[in-house]
Design a protein that fits this description.
Layout: H1 3-9, H2 23-33, E1 45-50, H3 53-75, H4 90-109, E2 116-122, H5 131-144, E3 148-152, H6 159-166, E4 175-183, H7 198-201, E5 213-214, E6 231-232
Antiparallel strand pairs: 1-2, 2-4, 3-4, 5-6
Helix pairs in contact: 2-5
Length: 234
């Protein structure tokens, strides 16, 4: 798969088939993940795959409780995604949140059917600088294998219980960075079209100075399949 196809079409997939992911596919995904850059090559990460039905049932219950807590925060105006980003239309933001909640509801309702949960742990992670490149590599490698997924942090609401269920040696400093739900998607891959263009979120040499190039439409697929390309601002 072309690297740009992977970059442009990897998106969060919450509606997944229950079909198991073969072990050799899982191995290729994680082998790609451990090649990710990390500070000093310290490799302070651990990836814990969960496919045991009893464990998945436990995590499904926790996930639904944690998600309810997050939406309770959201409803009272205290959640992390309550306010739109600067420059984003509030109505568009509300619609995005509505769609995300809908697909999230599906994931919550069918959590036990998710074929693979992947918990990612790290030590002294400096705000995610070491582990998030590995997580993104997981999602890109999964995309190349036809596997979709989503990264979620909501189970950190019940981190102690997660650690207990998984036997995490917290005394060594391990902390959960995220959990990924992985499986073969029911939806279709596609370029995210609902993004603000490059020139609206970028600048050059000084905040709010023009970036110098306008990108009216996504630059992938290649030129022959595009309706327009970048335009230099003079």
């Amino acid at each position: 798969m072309d690297i740009y196809e992977a970059l442009y079409t990897t998106r969060m997939m919450r509606r997944l088939h229950p079909d198991p992911i073969p072990l050799d596919t899982q191995a290729r995904i994680l082998d790609a993940a451990i090649r990710a850059p990390n500070g000093g090559n310290t490799q302070r990460w651990h990836f814990l795959a969960v496919d045991d039905p009893a464990l998945k049932h436990e995590f499904a219950q926790l996930f639904r409780q944690a998600r309810a807590l997050e939406y309770e925060k959201f409803s009272t105006g205290t959640g992390p995604m309550v306010a739109p980003a600067p420059g984003v239309d509030p109505a568009a933001h509300a619609e995005t949140m509505r769609r995300i909640k809908g697909s999230g509801n599906y994931l919550a309702d069918h959590f036990e059917e998710v074929p693979l949960l992947l918990f990612v742990f790290a030590i002294d992670d400096l705000g995610g600088a070491n582990i998030y490149p590995a997580i993104w590599s997981i999602l890109l490698a999964a995309r190349a294998e036809g596997v979709g997924g989503v990264m979620t942090l909501v189970l950190r609401n019940f981190e102690d219980r997660v650690n207990e269920l998984l036997g995490v040696p917290v005394e060594e400093g391990w902390e959960m960075s995220a959990m990924l739900t992985l499986g073969y998607p029911r939806g279709k891959w596609g370029v995210a079209a609902n993004r603000r263009p490059v020139q609206e979120v970028s600048s050059r040499n000084h905040w709010d100075s023009p970036f110098g190039v306008e990108v009216p439409e996504p630059l992938w697929p290649p030129d022959g399949e595009m309706t327009s390309g970048p335009t230099a601002v003079r």
